[in-house]
Amino acid sequence: MPILNFIMTSEEIEKEFQEAYKKASKTDKKFPPDVMLQFYAYYKQATEQEGIYTPSGEDDVRNAFKLNALLQIKGMSTNEAKRNYIELVNRHIAE
Question: How many distinct structural domains can be found in the chain?
Fold first, then answer.
């Protein structure tokens, strides 16, 4: 498990983020809704370049929860969102 407490370059963060994303994409684990919303919000904050991302889909309640999760991390930098995503994966998904 990588240690993220030391200074990492943007390239190192990106590499760790991509590895964490692959690990999260392959897991069969089921997570509580609050953890899934954290995964969602950190990923969107880390990858969307156009200001605030507006959730889409036909379920208004689900979209409201997604938007709330995004608003909770509004203003977080891309690299900070990537680091938080990596830490979330490391905490919830074992190798």
Answer: 1
- Burial zone of 89 (CB within 10 Å; 0-12 exposed, 13-18 middle, 19+ buried): buried
For 22-80, the pLDDT digits (tens) are 999 999 999 999 999 999 999 999 998 766 666 777 778 988 999 999 999 999 999 99
In a domain, residue 87? The reply is: yes
Q: By residue range, what is the domain housing residue 75?
A: 33-95
Return d(Cα 47, Cα 53) in angstroms, integer. 10
CA 20 to chain centre: 10
pTM of the model: 0.84
